Amino acid sequence: MDKKILVIDDDESIIWVIKKALEPTGYSVVSRTRLVSGLRAIQERQVILLDLILPDGNGLEGLREIRSAHPDAVVIMITAHAQMQSTITAMKEGAYDYLEKPFDIEELKIVIEKAFRDLSMREELKELKKAALETESPQMIGKSPGVLKVFKDIGKVAPKDITVLITGESGTGKELVAKAIHFNSSRAHGPFVAINSASIPKELLESELFGYRKGAFTGAVADKKGKIEAAAGGTLFLDEIAELESGLQAKILRFLQEREFSPLGGTDIFKADVRIIGATNKNLQEEVSKGLFREDLYYRFNVVQIKMPPLRERKEDIPLLVKFFLREASERLETEEKELSKDAKAALLKYDWPGNIRELDNVIKRACVLSSGAVIEKKDLLLDEDTSYSIKDFLEEKLKRYLKDMTKITNFNLHETVLSEVEKALISIVLRETNGNQLKTAKVLGINRNTLRTKIKEYKIK
């Protein structure tokens, strides 16, 4: 921290004494003899020595103005006319300390040193609180009408202990909405437990939710607590609920109605005080009409519905999201601070973002790692702006041409061959772009460094 001191005092001899005492020990001392000019010279996180009586104003009035405009500044009052009431008033108005002229130089040094130490500690605490908040609380960013409506809806439903259904395309940030509801509810101090119904094999999903007893199935060597029990007193977020199979839908419906459950392989009935929030990227009404989702469960979930808009409908939020992802990449991937060129910004606004915010996040972080220099150019984004292809579209188009004749060949392990060639090419390309830096390559690919080394050896990549 820069040790900058501002002295606002009309007594030139006092200013000279302060500079003589403090500047040799590393402090930078700036002085003003008038209150108005002194107030203009104030900087954030600065220690200010303020005289009580000045030619153009009262020091107490100046103190109030400083505390209002610069709450991070530390103000030490100094005066040759110390009175009990002025001292009390100054401390009540937020003065850090009060020194009487002529003050002892050693006392001045001690007070100044303590002020900067406390100032530094304040900054550390602020950063710690910020880090804790970012870790625990969701980072929902945006000012578009669609997102502002989501914010309002969250504010309305969070205090009410009701079931909520969050809808929206993949990658729009549905889990962030669920977390925002949780952290703004009376359950904020309880656990937030999330489970993705699409990412867990259907035969295991029931045991993940309700837990199981020892011997319930092969491999159940001990009792295991389920997600519902783990979320007791808090919130359980069920993502992709449209993927739940019918038998499990019935059991979840019973839990929503009775707040009771039994672990797999057990006969005991347990109660759990859990708020349920569901999410889906499908149209549940259509799933109900097709017979794929229970109508009674749909109405249980759809007490309140919050729809997260796709990124293509909230492009005014892209600059804010990009700024956040750039800062996050700088901190987590240890890249230098970067910014986007004018063409790169235009390309991001033109693109349709089929993968929504998740895709934008990946594009920015990849560009931060692969780009050279402090400016990310349009080419670094690796976006096909003419077709706005997703990775899935791109691969399908390329594979159609390659596989046209391959499918006619029998006894050919097409699946394994294609996957191996795509993986080998992908690793080779990223390795070249990172100049052979395996740590950066692993981060870009989203795989473990040891896994990368194994793949390099397996594919004999040089």
User: For the report, how would you describe the main beta sheet?
Assistant: 5 strands, parallel
Instruction: Tell me the overall shape.
Output: extended
* CATH homologous superfamily identity of the largest domain: P-loop containing nucleotide triphosphate hydrolases
Low-confidence runs (pLDDT<50, min 5 residues)?
none
Order of strands across the widest beta sheet?
Answer: 2-1-3-6-7
Helical stretch tally:
19
Radius of gyration: 31 Å
Q: Could you estimate the helical fraction of the residues in percent?
A: 40-55%
Number of strands: 16
* Backbone structural class: alpha/beta
* Distance between the first and last residues' Cα: 47 Å
Q: Averaged pLDDT, please?
A: 86
Domain module tally: 4
How does the SSE layout of this entry go?
Elements: E1 4-8, H1 12-22, E2 28-32, H2 35-40, E3 47-51, E4 53-54, E5 57-58, H3 59-69, E6 74-79, H4 84-92, E7 97-100, H5 105-136, H6 145-157, E8 164-167, H7 174-183, E9 192-196, H8 202-210, H9 227-230, E10 235-239, H10 246-258, E11 260-261, E12 270-271, E13 275-280, H11 284-289, H12 295-301, E14 304-307, H13 318-332, E15 339-340, H14 342-350, H15 356-370, E16 375-376, H16 391-403, H17 414-433, H18 438-445, H19 449-459
Parallel strand pairs: 1-2, 1-3, 3-6, 6-7, 8-13, 8-14, 9-10, 10-13, 15-16
Antiparallel strand pairs: 4-5, 11-12
Helix pairs in contact: 13-15, 17-18, 18-19
